[in-house]
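Subject: sequence -> structure tokens, single chain

Hey, anyone have a minute? Need the predicted structure for the following. Not urgent.
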Amino acid sequence: MALGLSVIAALERGERAALPRFDKATDDRLPPTRWEHAAPGTRLLVLEGWCVGARPQPPSMLAEPINVLEREEDGDCVWRAYANAALAGVYQTLFSRMDLLVMLAAPGFDVVLRWRAQQEEDLRAKGRGGMTDAEIARFIQHYERLTRWMLEEMPARADMVVWLGEGRELLWAHHGPSSALRG
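Reply:
Had a minute. Here:
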């Protein structure tokens, strides 16, 4: 969060700012030497990511595990509660700085495994590693709860929702109830 907030602060001051980049192959940021820089005076920053803009779930929704990972490795709800608390706190500090929230909405969680498998296949084809099918299945379980929650609650508050089909094609888009995009 601190890094994102510092980038925003530098841009607000009109300064040149390093733009962190994520590397899917290593599941981490690229080294700072490989980051691009926003020019002084940059006025538009796009913050993109799987869970950008997510809000915490009501605590009562955390009690029941929703997949094998939660049932077998978080039966006592420690990780779910920790992630939810982070979403309620430090992440909201960053997300509150966004002027516009655009949601790219998958048709449902069931396509996430296939989409991620395609991305990993592309990484393997480029010789950049890539997870096995079993690793992908485990990986996405970490994000299942939050993804399902976002698909349920975010469309009602996003400034724009872009609904995607199973092939990632645009099905339709609409402006949200409080959209800054409206005339």
